[in-house]
Amino acid sequence: MGSHEKSFPRGGIANLVANTDSSTSNIVFGATQRKIKKAPKLKEKHLEEEKGDQLQAFSAETLTYDTLQENMLVMGVVKATEATSLQIALPGRMTARALVADISDAYGRVAQSYMAGDSSEYRDLTVLFSIGQIVYGRAIKTRNNSEGNRMSLLLTLKPSEVNSSLHHVNIKKGFIFVGAIEEIQEHGCVIETGIGGLQAFVPIEGAAQKHHIGQLIFLKVKQIQHGSDKSTCQCVCVEQDKLKIKSQHETNLDYILPGSIVKFKATKHLKNGLEGSIMNDAFRGYVNEHHLADALQSPQDYELNEEYLARLLYVMPLTKLVYVTFNLNITVQPEQPESEGEELLKKGSIVEKARVLRHGTGGIVLLLKHKYKGLISYGSIKSNFKGNYDQDVVLAKYSSKSKHNVRVLGYDVIESLYYCTDDPNVLNEKTYTLEDIQAGDIVSARIVKPDPKIGGYSVKIGKVNGIIEQLQLAPNTRYEVGQRLRCRVLEISLDRKICYLSNRNEYLSKGIKLLTSLQLAQPGHVFTGTVVKCDATYVLVKFCSGIKGILHKQRLNELVESTFFEGQTTKFRVAGRNNDQVLLTLPEDKFQLGEIIPIEVTNNALDAGLEFKITFASDDQNAATTGDEDNTEEFMGLVPLRFLSDYVDLQEAKKRIHPVGNHIEAACIMQNIFSLRDVPYFSENLTKDWHTVQVGDVLRAIVKHAGEKVLELLLPVRNYNKLVKLHVKMLCLQTVRDKPIMLEPDQLLYVKVLSKEPETKTLTVSAKLTDVWSGQLSDTAKLVESYLKEVSQIRKSLKQMDAPIAKYTRGEKINVIFRGIDSATSNWVYNVEGTKSISAMMISSLAGNAEAPQEGSTQEAVILWIDYANDLLLISNKRKDIEHISSSKELPQNLIAKSGMKAKVLLKLDNIVVCSLKKGSSNPLILCPIRLHPNDVESTASACLRQGDFCHLAFIHDNLPIALPEAVWKLWKGVKRAAVEAEETTVKPKKIKIENNAANKSSPQNVTNGKETEEEVKPLVNGKKNNGQLFFEDKKPAKTNTYNSKATGGAETKVRLPGISNFWDTDASNNKTQEESSSDEDDDNAAGVAEPSSSKKRRLSAKEKAKAEVKEEERLREIEERNADPNQPPETIDQFERLVLAEPNDSKNWIQYMSFMLSNTEIDKAREIARRAIKTIAFRETKELRNMWMALLNLELSYNSSNFDDVQKEALSHTDPLETYIKLVEVLKSHNQKERLISVLNNLMRKFKSELQVWRVAAEAYFWLDMPERVQPTLQRAINALPKNEHINCIVAFAKVYAKNNDNDMAQTLLDDIVTSYPKRIDIWVLYADMLIKAGLIESARNLMERAVLQKLQPDKMLVIYKKFLDLEEKHGTEENAARVKKLAEQYVQSQNKSLK
């Protein structure tokens, strides 16, 4: 608890010279004070002094936390600056912080504008303040609960608070104070003085280059003009070493501010300093022994009755005792050593044989290295002793000239001394400061506490603070407070005074190479780093010492672009350096595609999959020559979740059965990406390379990117670093536009090689089901069998791990306890009887309309399926299912090859459908595949099955209960098509074709068709065909060819439109069109159909000629009428030209003309039309011109955004800038140009801040940008910028914007303030009520109208309120409420009549 300063005693002022023998000492704020009796004096001398006693100090104690009073003015020195805070040294070895809000009011406004997006005037505190700068402010004591209720200090430097006790009337010429720059003008600065009624100006040439808004500067009053209400002064800037007060006749101590330089007259030596006076003996002052001019001086070195220059530190508020320092040149850094071999003392330095000089104020004064002053505080000495101890015995150790080993704890700026300790625990600590460790060191760290901000932990390495971020924590490790970890130092941040560590195995392994400095980043060297960010175009990697490297994905092949994830720690190769930026690439592959390697799982908690390591012999020559027996290297990699299993619903379960430390085999896919699902494939098949892959090969591919129309596939072909593009048409049998095919990255597909192009090293493939699948249903049965085997392996592994879920089997009867119904899915939720970890669920389709049992009741159920990933049993409690379903896994003999068996669909999962037969007493669950093949992406095997429906099944397996819907079975029954032999399909001999062509000789088209068929069966040569074929659609001839059969009787075959494959073989007569004669004829020809040409022209008769002339006349008349009809939309360039010539000032016609050109992809012509329109439209038609500029800006944003800025400048210079900016906001919204929109908003609010609509547009835009936090500061800026008569309208506009964006609370707050402050604004009442009604807040609207009718307004205004209230109750209330409102209105009218009478 802090002490309180003693009040003045009653009476007059005593003499300065006192009788010390008869005084009683009182310690007040560290200064011992006495009551002094008046000495007898002659009446004619100093009669004014004979008025009482005065408090007098005989000890010059320094400032402490106890003696420092709240809001006390004190001088400080800036010793550290950050962007948002200052560290300020205070007297008494105390430190205070000053935040952004504590600098000045002007700086606070600039900071708010910066937060709102305007950074033109903002400068952070590192620019405004320099190290060693002298400041003064008011101290505020706070307690930090997070640090054990420890006392801390804040220092406010705001002139409005620091100078609040001063008044402009008392300001004189020569007065020195601190002010803040409020506004920078052409020839000087307007000053924020903080002094009531004082306005100040400083003439400075080029002020904008020298100073910034909000900056604090020392000022001296040069001229001042006093007034009754306010005074105006002109000031000059003063450097901090020239703050000397020349006038020594100041009688008011409040106007001598800390930091000022005064003359101090020494009058008495005290035991720990000097006593004297300032301002011609007007005020008593004190100098502590630590505040002398030289640190090693003592008070006895100063002569009495001599004057010395001193800087004012602080004044005790009540006693008015002044404390000063003789150290005028305060420096933050101590003096540099004179000799080169001598080290500068710094924090953590150990000084041996430090000699004791004396017992001084606050501790033992030491001499360090024969030239520096040190101090061991009494508090640190006492902290080494617990319980009772003899103080004299303890301090006897520190006798004069005794020597001790001490460690430097820090340097005090104001007292110019090092504070030290001789605590053995601190002296023996190896890691005391950040300088004691380096990046790359391995240290032992102790966990102090979890840090939720970073998701990691705060640790201690000796006395050094450190943190381990979440990305750098070793996975699958349990962490507790107090636990010690072996860590690698990654980075040392001297600014934050903290180090960053990692305990990941990748950083602790032997032989690891770390990038600790930019000089080591030489091209070709390999270093270990951690991925901290994955972007679409690059990967950001962090190394030691804060070095970051960038890996551009353009440096990688397409196969490894998407294999990175945040937190991945692996090796990277330096590709180059661009100043401080390190360019990276990947090291050479350690393993080849398809190579099967034993791995050890290191982390199975990642969402991305399994992290593993591979240990192999190192090939590093340096490591081999060191003689290290353990000459091994570790390779870290990842098995993505999708690569754990071919089946999506088993992937999480597969990850579960591979705990940390498990040894398994994986196949290399690329770089550090491995696969478990592909191990059987690469074990049974030779891995293809570019030379061995052949046309017709069926390969197992991986989907890397899935678009709406094009897929990108990764083929398992070595030395083929490309992704193969596949059109969706080459995957689906029947592509449906309304139902896009949904594929996922890393999904499995099989592809067939259609062509191989050696020149471009390109493979063309097909993934059609008919190309990669034999069509035999036995292959589908094997697919389901492999799925069931994988499920059985998962159950077996979980059984070895003693997982409770592994003891249950499909078809088993169990007892379950009902827990309730899931509100989201309507599924019935159970707990399995006898266990708490296993839950069960019956889907809503099985429950049907049955009534739910009571919660806690027990029921019998049968297991339909087991979800091993989530410990979940899918069950049925239906009595028929329990009786008919058995736990057998084999198919009964009587059901083998049976078809037409009636069954009910119980479950439809991701890969199978579970069914139950309706015949027989006890049968196993029947399993139907979702897909016939991995390429059956349309799920044709189960498209007709729905949960709860009945169906007919056909069994396709001899031993297992695997079946297909009978309709699907009939479709594929007996189909035998070997996918790899598709090219060997027999083709009709050419002789047959010739005979068929001869039989149809009368039809020229038949000959063409014959050629077309012959071309179709030509084999591919390197993927090329002479007919220019673009897509490989189907390489087998159609079963029904176009040749004439005998049944047709020689009739002509139907002419087919030319396609891509037969374009060049089509007869020219099919493409013959009539020649264009004029624009009118062109319109007519476009609508008509060309008649087929005949071999002979027949002459027309007179009657036929007359009919033809009538038809031609009708056609021409129709064209003329269409052109004359103004409502007929133009369709040609000529028609558009006539339209814009007829109405040249109509922007709508010009914009339609531009749209017509854009529809024909004539972008440049559309741009020319816009330019032409701008030149053509009359300058008075400002709105039409603005529409054209907006159309041109729309065009540039859509097709060439690089020209947008230039066009925008033109538009602003040729139109009204305000209206153009507002229209531009909507244009940018429509194109989702968020960055440009923010820039436009900043310009709009800066240039047109006096326009109300500007602020409304900005508020709506911020909501559209999803930045609602900026709307409130924008409202404050608007109120400050707009005139007062616009404030209400502005607030109403913002309230509407808030309500429009569903922030009704803020809208109500704004409107409520208005109706409270301006109750006569009936329009605001009505608007407020309408807004509440629209938002559905009827009760709030009713309460509002209740308030409104209580107002005492004019009758015409009250009539509006009552009508609105009545309308509210009639539409949204009850009849009783409406009657009540009518009654209130009647009472109001009666009261008005009485008042008139």
From TrEMBL:
It comes from the Eukaryota. Residues 993-1132 are annotated as: Disordered. It holds the Pfam family HAT_Syf1_CNRKL1_C. One of its GO terms (cellular component) is small-subunit processome. Keywords: Nucleus, Repeat, rRNA processing. GO terms for biological process: rRNA processing. Residues 440-504, 524-587 form the S1 motif domain. It is found in: Nucleus, Nucleolus. One of its GO terms (molecular function) is RNA binding. Residues 1101-1124 have a biased composition (Basic and acidic residues). PANTHER family: PROGRAMMED CELL DEATH PROTEIN 11 PRE-RRNA PROCESSING PROTEIN RRP5, PROTEIN RRP5 HOMOLOG. This is S1 motif domain-containing protein.
